[in-house]
C-alpha cells in the first residue's frame, strides 16, 4: 500500500456498542495506528468510552451527532447504525468499517492478516462482474483469466465494495445458530471473487470496505425491525443496505468483491433469546429478495444518489402497502440522500 493512500485516503470507521475498547484497540494497534480512525459511540450507550492512547482518531458521541444532523435526525444512528454516521462525516476516498467484536485473524501459515491492506488491494484492482472467472479473482497473485474468458472483458470494472469474512463465529441467523450452537467457522479459504452482476448477496457490515466517493450514499440506515435489539442477530439494517448497494453497483457498472480478508469474531449475544426479535426479519426476506431481484433503474439514474432515490420510490410503490416497515424504509432512504448532500464537506471534527 502506497504512502499516499496510508496518509490521505483511508478512514477506519468503528461503531462502538460497548464502552471498553481497550482490548480491541490494543490488538489492532499494529494496523490501526497507521491510519485515521472515526469512532462513533452508540447514542444509547451510557458509559464513557475507554480508548487507549496512541491513535489518530476522532470520537463522535451523541452531542456531536446532534450538532451535525440535528436531534430529530440523530435517532437513526442508534445501535449498529451508528457506523453510518462515520460514513457520513468521513472525507476520505476509502472507508474500512470494522465492528468492535472483531479481532486479528491468522492465515493458513499462522501470519496475522492485515485486513486493511487486503481490502484496499481488492478496491484498487478491477472487478469482473459480467463473466465469471472460475479461478476466482484474476487480479490476485498467482491467478489469471481462464481459457475461454473473453479478452474484451478482461480489463474489468472499478471495484466499489469489498466484503470480508470472519473466523470463529459465522454470520448465521438466529435460527441457524440456535440449531448449531457449537458450530464455528475454522476454514480460512485463500480466495477472492467478484459477485456476478444481477446476483444478490446478504452483505454484512461487520468487516467491509468501500470507495466512499463512488458508492458511499448507498450504504445507509433505513430498514429497522420493530423489536430490533443490540445484537447482530436482531438487526437487518446492513442486509437491506447491501441490497441497495448491489443494485446501484449493477446499474452503474461497478463491481463487488467478497472473500479475504478474514477477521476473528468473538461470541456475542444469545441466539435463542434473539429468535423472537429476528423472526420478523427472516419473514421479510421472503419479500425483500424477489423485490430487489426485479428492480431495474432508469438510464437517467447516473449517480449513486439517483439510484438510492429511485430504489426508494419503487420500495414505496411496490412494498409500502404490504408492511409499514417498507414505507418507513423508503422515506428513510430519501431522507438519507438529502442528508448526504446537505452535510457535504462542511463537517468539522467533534469539539471543533
Q: What does the model show?
A:
It is found in: Golgi apparatus. InterPro entries: RGP_fam. It is a single chain. With 352 residues, the protein is of the alpha/beta class. The chain has one domain (7-346): Spore Coat Polysaccharide Biosynthesis Protein SpsA, Chain A (Alpha-Beta Complex). The chain has 11 helices and 9 strands. The protein has helices spanning 3-8, 22-32, 62-69, 83-89, 115-123, 174-179, 212-215, 237-252, 271-294, 304-318, 324-343; strands at 10-16, 36-41, 56-60, 94-99, 102-104, 159-168, 192-194, 207-211, 255-265. Strands 1, 2, 3, 4, 5, 6, 7, 8 and 9 form a 9-stranded mixed β-sheet that branches. β1 (10-16), α2 (22-32) and β2 (36-41) form a beta-alpha-beta unit. α8 (237-252) packs parallel to α9 (271-294) and α10 (304-318) packs antiparallel against α11 (324-343). It is globular, with a radius of gyration of 19 Å. The protein starts with a helix and ends in a 9-residue tail after the last helix. 43% of the residues are buried. Residues 345-349 have low confidence and may be disordered.
List keywords for this structure.
Spore Coat Polysaccharide Biosynthesis Protein SpsA, Chain A; nine-stranded mixed sheet; single chain; 11 helices; 352 residues
Show the helix and strand layout.
Elements: H1 3-8, E1 10-16, H2 22-32, E2 36-41, E3 56-60, H3 62-69, H4 83-89, E4 94-99, E5 102-104, H5 115-123, E6 159-168, H6 174-179, E7 192-194, E8 207-211, H7 212-215, H8 237-252, E9 255-265, H9 271-294, H10 304-318, H11 324-343
Parallel strand pairs: 1-2, 1-4, 2-3, 6-9
Antiparallel strand pairs: 4-8, 5-9, 6-8, 7-9
GO biological process, one term: UDP-L-arabinose metabolic process
Subcellular location: Golgi apparatus
Keywords: Cell wall biogenesis/degradation, Golgi apparatus
